[in-house]
Specification:
The complex is a heterodimer. By secondary structure, chain A is mainly α. Chain A is built from 22 helices and no strands. Chain B is of the alpha/beta class. Chain B starts with 10 loop residues before the first strand and ends with a helix. The chains are: A mainly alpha, B alpha/beta.
């Protein structure tokens, strides 16, 4: 049930386009020698088999042993998830760890009701974005095809289920990644589990009016970045670069918008089990990994500041600042185009795991709330209570 | 230090691209900065950024363009990017009258968050879809005239008027700036308070914003 992958779907026409193993259309000319990838795949296959066996044992039939196992050996579970959930079990495990399976069981027939009988004020907005969500994935490519239809249904159902949030751009990428691993109804309840907070703190604030949680996360990330990478923080401040310029997508779509899919999946494994702090950790790890490049860009800037600040500009003082923009632009570019090696999950994720953020995140959240007045927090927890009743 | 070559420009202008979701802002940007068009582009989440350097009135001008997510909810993030912008390209879709009706709201956004002297060009995009047209070019012209905006119909797909739209904005900004520079030099010469050059108001662009304030 949790397999809606291209390799076992009959309805997909034989593609003339080359696809990667996740079903995305390959963009680059692939001249890599076949032999290399084959031998690597062979050894990987054996290892993968072993892992799947271990995982199956841990989960039990249809997930029956899961809760028991997690209670008994939470650290083993955590460690194994950090190594990556086997792709063939990912859909099921995601539902187990996110708490969405329980929501589904507690709410029979609700999804169908939302999809078939309710109307949403966001229908046109959703339709407009359907073909703009993972447009290079074979499942979502076909106009009005099964992928686009499922995506529409899930988003529409959510916009009815939670009329205060409705539909907001970015949600489609969450729903999209889920739909590649599970049925519509399962994807819907996982979205609910995430946004309403079945296991972790609710994330609906990412999409509520004013995007309050995006603002909070960006504040927290900015502070963390300055604490963990002070040199970089200083340069960014000088260059007037703030996280909203590069990190809003990280939070709003949990890295699913523009990151390599294999990396996004590994992040999602951990995200669903450990919560949003992994987004901060990965963000910090990326900056740390690219630190030398980012800082050397910035060094050039100070020279230009001196050279260019003499330029006459009568349009306002901010023009002065922008006169130094060579490094600014390079920085922005670098922050949106991380090198391929930085995107290797086996390099990036261990680095991310080693960064400790939990305690500071909580302190910074409190600090942010003090700054912005006591909002929404009490409402959030009552929703969570209600959901889990 | 080879980078220095990149950096040779006389002026740098920050421009924002705004308008409803799906009107083609990102494709206008990619057409202008990379001469690319993508039918299968993703919706913009948050803000995107690109630059292009070009000649305007004999000067080398770098346009630094911020492309913003169009959905209303995103204004919580995107409106911060209006600060410091000297130009705005306000885009609607000629095949969707709603996006034209919303231009008024976007002007209000600019008034609330942007510099009052900002140069605004309104662009009716997707002119290649003439058979699906829902907003006449004349309505566009009339509205633009009333609000004191420049106006062009564009097609990012066919690369029609995209270049011209930016050229027009940049030239207008440049003209304002050179007049201002002149004025501030004169002011500096007569009053010997050079620092105040930035506060001078210019009449020829000021009226556009004043006028839009009273409408709605």
């Amino acid at each position: 049930m949790d397999k809606k992958r291209i390799d076992d779907s009959d309805s997909v026409p034989v593609p003339s386009q080359k696809l990667d193993r996740f079903g995305f259309v390959k963009q680059e000319l692939n001249n890599s020698p076949e032999g290399v990838s084959k031998t690597r795949l062979a050894s990987e296959y054996v290892r993968e088999e072993r892992r799947v066996r271990k995982w199956r044992k841990m989960i039990g039939v249809g997930g029956s042993d899961w809760k028991h196992y997690v209670r008994r050996k939470p650290h083993v579970v955590k460690r194994r998830i950090r190594k990556g959930i086997p792709d063939c079990l990912r859909g099921l495990v995601w539902q187990l760890i996110s708490g969405s399976r329980d929501l589904l069981l507690m709410n029979p027939g609700v999804y169908e009701q939302l999809v078939i009988y309710e109307t949403s004020a966001s229908e046109l907005d959703i339709i407009r974005d359907i073909s703009r969500t993972f447009p290079s994935h074979v499942f979502f490519q076909q106009r009005h095809g099964p992928g686009q239809r499922s995506l529409y249904n899930v988003l529409k159902a959510y916009s009815v289920y939670d009329r205060e949030v409705g539909y907001v751009q970015g949600m489609g990428f969450l729903a999209g990644i889920l739909l590649l691993y599970m049925s519509e109804e399962d994807a819907f309840w996982l979205l609910v589990a995430l946004l309403k907070g079945a296991v972790h703190a609710p994330m609906e604030g990412l999409y509520l009016v004013g995007l309050p949680l995006v603002q909070q996360y960006l504040f927290q990330f900015d502070q963390l970045m300055k604490e963990h990478l002070p040199k970089l923080g200083e340069h960014f401040t000088q260059q007037m670069i703030n996280p909203s310029m590069y990190a809003s997508q990280w939070f709003i779509t949990v890295f699913s918008y523009s990151f390599p899919f294999h990396l996004a999946l590994r992040i999602w494994d951990v995200f669903l089990y450990e919560g949003v702090k992994i987004v901060f950790k990965v963000g910090l790890a990326l900056l740390k990994y690219c630190l030398d490049d980012l800082v050397s860009f910035s060094k050039i800037s100070t020279l230009f500041l001196i050279r260019l600040s003499g330029l006459c500009c009568a349009y306002g003082c901010y023009m002065f600042v922008y006169q130094t923009s060579l490094p600014f632009e390079k920085l922005i570019h670098a922050l949106r185009n991380f090198p391929e090696d930085a995107m290797d999950p086996d390099k990036l994720l261990p680095m991310a795991y080693s960064i400790k953020v939990s305690k500071r995140l909580e302190e910074l959240r409190q600090e942010y709330e003090r700054k912005n007045g006591e909002v929404a927090q009490s409402a959030d927890s009552s929703v969570k209570q209600k959901l889990l009743r | 230090m080879a980078n220095r070559v990149d950096h040779e420009y006389d002026y740098l202008f920050k421009i924002v691209l705004i308008g409803d979701s799906g009107v083609g802002k990102s494709n206008i940007l990619s057409r202008f900065t990379r001469n690319e068009f993508c039918l299968e582009s993703k919706s913009t989440i948050g803000v995107e950024f690109a630059t292009r350097t070009l000649q305007v009135e004999g000067k080398t001008v770098k346009a630094q363009i911020w492309d913003t997510a169009g959905q209303e909810r995103y204004r919580a993030i995107t409106s911060a990017y209006y600060r410091g912008a000297v130009g705005a390209l306000l885009v609607y879709d000629i095949t969707k009258s709603q996006t034209f009706d919303n231009v008024q709201r976007w002007l209000r956004e600019l008034r609330d968050h942007a510099d009052s002297n900002i140069v605004i060009m309104m662009a009716g995009n997707k002119s290649d879809l003439n058979h699906l047209r829902a907003v006449s070019e004349e309505d566009g012209h009339t509205f633009a005239e009333r609000e004191g905006l420049s106006f062009l119909e564009t097609s990012a797909l066919e690369a029609t008027n995209v270049e011209k739209a930016f050229q027009t904005i940049l030239a207008e900004i440049y003209n304002i700036i050179s007049k201002k520079a002149l004025a501030s030099q004169e002011a500096a010469a007569s009053t010997t308070i050079p620092g105040q050059g930035t506060t001078i108001n210019i009449d020829d662009s000021g009226n556009t914003n004043k006028r839009s304030c009273c409408s709605t």
